[in-house]
Design goal:
Radius of gyration: 33 Å
Number of helices: 4
Structural class: mainly alpha
Strand order of the largest sheet: 1-2
Helix content: over 70%
CATH architecture: Up-down Bundle
Distance between the termini: 24 Å
Number of strands: 2
């Protein structure tokens, strides 16, 4: 530090402070973005539970009443469920309540495994649902079997929702630790900048000012100090 010019003695602490500030801002932005992405996944996983319950109701409604509206509602619920499951597995855009949202692919291995198991179950379940015939003699028995599978699907996505929430909380905790560490470093740099400014600028300028005042009073001995 002694061999540096005055300009660099002032600029280096200032650049470090600015760099730390920029880092903190970027971390906060990244943390907010990650929280928004996690909230979308929690919302979609929660909706999968609701859709599973809705499909079970429509299967029984169609079998018991032969009302085609239940069949149409079932088709809509199945399409939304499948699109959402695909988005959770691979990422991509998804319509949620009339709004397009971006679903990011999760890297959590436990959630990835759970979603893969859900997809395998869904492929078999979808064939059984499409094969339901309200006029057949075993329609109610088939509806009850499908209902049991859909209850398992509800439990699967209840677990997935909790896992997404837990993973989000862990990410937030990590990000906050980094932000706190940066805050400590930021305070240290401020103190360091004040120390450098005081040592190399304020003290020399103050000494010159005092010498000038002594000379103005006719005391020439101060100029040699």
């Amino acid at each position: 530090m002694k061999n540096l010019s005055l300009k660099w003695k002032v600029l280096i602490p200032l650049v470090l402070v600015l760099a730390t500030t920029a880092l903190q801002i970027n971390l906060i932005i990244a943390m907010n973005q990650a929280q928004q992405e996690d909230a979308v996944k929690v919302n979609v996983a929660g909706r999968q539970r609701m859709l599973s319950q809705r499909m079970a109701k429509d299967v029984f409604g169609y079998v018991l009443t032969s009302n085609s509206q239940h069949q149409e509602d079932l088709k809509v619920a199945m399409d939304i469920f499948e699109q959402s499951l695909h988005a959770l597995k691979t990422g991509g855009q998804l319509d949620v309540g009339g709004t397009k949202v971006e679903v990011t692919k999760t890297e959590n291995p436990e959630i990835v495994t759970l979603l893969s198991e859900a997809e395998t179950s869904w492929q078999g379940m979808k064939l059984e649902i499409n094969g339901v015939d309200g006029s057949s003699t075993d329609a109610i028995a088939k509806a009850e079997a499908i209902n049991e599978q859909l209850i398992k699907m509800v439990n699967t996505f209840d677990q997935a929702t909790k896992m997404y929430e837990t993973a989000s909380a862990v990410t937030v905790k990590k990000n906050m630790s980094v932000i706190y560490a940066c805050a400590v470093g930021y305070l240290f740099l401020i103190f360091f900048s004040w120390y450098i400014t005081n040592k190399y600028i304020i003290k020399p300028v103050t000494a010159l000012q005092r010498a000038a005042e002594d000379i103005a009073k006719g005391d020439l001995s101060g100029s040699s100090r």
